[in-house]
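Figure-free illustration: sequence to structure, shown twice.
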Amino acid sequence: MAHPQQVLVVGAGVVGLSIAWLLQRQGHAVRLLDPCLNGPPAADSGSWAALGVLMGQVYHRSSGRGWRLRQRSLELWREWIEALEAQGHSIAFRQGLLLLASDGPELERQGRLHQERQAKGFPLELWDPAQLQTLQPHGPEAALGGLYSPADGQLDPATALAALRADAERHGMVGHAEEAMAVERHHGQWRVQCRGGEWLESPWVVLSAGARGAALVEPLGHALPMEPVLGQALELELADQPDWQGPNWQWPGAVVWKGVNLVPRPDLPGGRRLWLGATLEPGSHASPEALAALRRWGNADLGWLHGARVVRQWQGHRPRPNQRPAPLLEQLEPGLIMASGHYRNGVLLAPASAEWVAEVISKPAETSDHS
C-alpha cells in the first residue's frame, strides 16, 4: 500500500464489515457508519437473513465477472477464517454442498457441469440414488441424484460479522451508530450527514448500505435503483424419530432441494438444529404461504422434518439491482465507491468485493468499475 487513506464505510452488513476489516488491516484509518452498531440488527437486514451458503464451484457459469468473484471469494474466505481464528475469533464454517436433482433435465445439467468442471480440475462428485440413501437422516426419496462439491459450503453470517467487527475494532476501526442521511462533495472531500446532524468528512466514502446507499447518491445524479427481495428463514430442532435417533448428522454439508437450502447445524445447542431458507418474495411483506412452503422443504415429505420444532424464524431484504448485474462494484466519482446490491450472494462475495474496494483505494488513478 502506497499511502494510508481515511475511509468512511457506510453500512455494517457482511459486505461493509468485510471492507472495513480489510482496509483497517491494510493500515487505512477506517470509520464505520451504521445505526445498528450499538444494538440489534435492523429487522430487514440482508446479512442477517442470509444462511451463508457458499455456492462457488457449482455455479452454473464458467466465465465472466460472477464466476471470477465467486472463485476468488472462496479462496479469500479460507484465508480470512484462518487469520481471524489465529487472533482468537471463532467463525462457524462447514465445507461441503450437495445439490439434489428433482427431475431429469436437472440431472442432465448436473452431469454436464460435472464433466466440464472435472476437465478443469474441480473435485465435484456425482451421487446416485444409492449413495443418497446413506444420508442420515434420510433425504427426499424423489431425488434422482446429486452433485456434490467438497470445496463449497456454509458460513454462519452472525459469527462472521462478530469476528470481523471485533478484529477491525482491535486494529483501530472507529464505529458511529448513526444513520446516513446525505452525501455531498465539500471543499475537495466527501462528507456524510448523520441523522443527528453531524457531518463526517473523508476523502473516501464506500457505500455498502443496500437500497439506502442508492438513495444517497441519487441527488448526485447517479441512478442505481435497487429493489428489495424479501427472504424468510427458519431454525428447526429435530425430535427423535423411529428411523433416526440423532444427534449424529451424517450429511456432507448443506443440501439444496428445489432451490431451497437445508443447513445442518449440529454445532448449535442440542446437536439437532438445522436452518431452512430462504424464500424469494418481491417487495417488503412476508408471505405466510411462502413460509409454509419453506417449512415443507419443497414437499420433500420427510417425517423427521415434519416433526421438527420451530426454534425461531427471521426475514430480511436482499437488495437486487434493477436492470444491472449484481453486485454493483463501481467508483461513481473520485473517492466515492458503491459496493452493494449483492442480492443473494452477499456472504459469498464479501471478500472479493472488499479486495476490489481496497485495490481502488490503493490505486485511485486506475479504472473505476469492475468488469
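We now fold a second protein in the same way, so the two outputs can be compared directly.
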Amino acid sequence: MKEITIVCPIFNEEENIEPFIKNFNKIFKNNPNYKFSILFADNASTDLSRKILKKICEINKDIKYIRYVKNNGVMKSLFTAI
C-alpha cells in the first residue's frame, strides 16, 4: 500500500484545523488503496492550535504535529517538516 503524508504549516489556525482534517478525511475515505497521514508544522502559534493538535494526535495516530520555537514562515517550515 502506498503512503501519502500531507504536510501543513500552520500559525494561529485554531479555527481551521478541525475543518481541514474533516475535508481531507473525505478524500482519504475515497482512496482505500493509499494510507494517508497529516503532519502539521506549527510555527509557534500563540492561540489554541497547539492544544487542539495535541488532543487530536492522542485520538488519531495518523495525525502528527511538530512545533517550532519561532515562526519560520511557510516555506521554511514546510521544508524542515519534510
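Summary for the second example: The longest strand covers residues 2-10.
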